[in-house]
Amino acid sequence: MESTTMAKLILFISLLHHIFASSTQSPPLLPKEAHPTKSGYLPINPTVNTTTTNNKNRSFIFYTFYEAQKVSSTLSETPLLIWLQGGPGCSSMLGNFLELGPWRVTNSQTQENIKLEPNPGSWNRIFGLLFLDNPIGTGFSIASTPQEIPRNQSLVAEHLFQAITGFIKLDPLFKERPVYITGESYAGKYVPAIGYYILKRNPRLSVSERVNLRGVAIGNGLTDPVTQVTTHAVNAYFLGLINEKQKGELEKAQWEAVELVKMGNWSMATDARNMVLHMLENMTGLATLYDFTRKVPYETNLVTEFLAYGEVKKALGVSESMVYEECSDVVEDALHEDVMKSVKYMVEFLVKKTRVLLYQGHLDLRDNVVSTEAWVKKMKWEGIGRFLLAERKVWKVNDVLAGYVQKWGSLSHAVVLGAGHLVPTDQAVNSQVMIEDWVLETGLFGKDQEEDVPPHFKGSL
Question: What family is it from (predicted)?
Answer without folding.
Answer: Belongs to the peptidase S10 family.
